[in-house]
């Protein structure tokens, strides 16, 4: 099973789904928070090979609200929180802060 990053073209919010083909990933994108209300033709799909290792039978996508998945998304896929939240106190409690470029940059500035 392959990992695919899916998002609406030119938008920040994205998801990583698991599918055999690009087309299947694009169809699955419609069932993610990132693309649920997006026109099918506006969905962008690209391989996320670095996330292939997180696939488990039955797993459809990496879940931002699952600690292990969040760490994977930040560490291997370059995900961050929404930029205006990067300075929030919540970042200090984030399980992925040790891998987050925004948090590390903010921490080194202080």
The gyration radius over C-alpha positions equals 14 Å
Mean pLDDT: 89
Total strands: the figure is 3
Major sheet: size, sense and barrel closure? 3 strands, antiparallel
Order of helices and strands: EEHEHHH
Tell me the distance between the termini. 42 Å
> Spans of 5+ residues with little confidence (pLDDT < 50)?
none
Strand portion: 15-25%
Helix content: 25-40%
What topology, given as strand order, has the largest sheet?
2-1-3
- The structure class reads alpha+beta
Shape: globular
Please tally the helical runs, counting DSSP H or I stretches of 4 or more residues: 4
Structural write-up:
This protein has 110 residues and is an alpha+beta fold. Helix content is 29%, strand content 16%. It is built from 4 helices and 3 strands; from the N terminus they run ββαβααα. The protein has helices at 22-29, 67-77, 90-93, 101-109, and strands at residues 2-8, 14-19, 43-47. The chain has a 3-stranded antiparallel beta sheet. Strand 1 and strand 2 form a beta hairpin. The longest helix has 11 residues, at 67-77. The radius of gyration is 14 Å and the shape is globular. The chain starts with a strand and ends with a helix. The mean pLDDT is 89.
Keywords:
3 strands; 110 residues; 3-stranded antiparallel sheet; globular; single chain; alpha+beta
Task: Walk me through the topology.
Blueprint lengths: L1 E7 L5 E6 L2 H8 L13 E5 L19 H11 L12 H4 L7 H9 L1
Antiparallel strand pairs: 1-2, 1-3
Quick summary:
This protein is an alpha+beta fold and 110 residues long. It has four helices and three strands.
